[in-house]
Specification:
elongated; mainly alpha
């Protein structure tokens, strides 16, 4: 089926985020609550995920959010 209409109607509920330079909080929320569309290299994705976890733990500690983990 060929779509003939306003393309913004198709993509209105999609948020596109480049996670490489996003904040640790945003990276964590996306990794926790969303599903990646494309993973070209599972090894690189795994390494990125590990960096997100470490960065987020540091962010929680520095921001004082870690007190809510108790």
């Amino acid at each position: 089926e060929i779509f003939e209409g306003d393309i913004t109607e198709v993509f209105r509920d999609i948020d596109l985020v480049v996670l490489n330079n996003a904040s640790p909080l945003l990276q964590h929320q996306v990794m926790k609550n969303r599903h990646p569309l494309i993973i070209k290299d599972p090894s690189i994705y795994r390494q990125f995920r590990e960096r997100v976890i470490v960065s987020y733990d540091e962010y929680k500690y520095i921001s004082g959010m870690s007190v809510y983990d108790r």
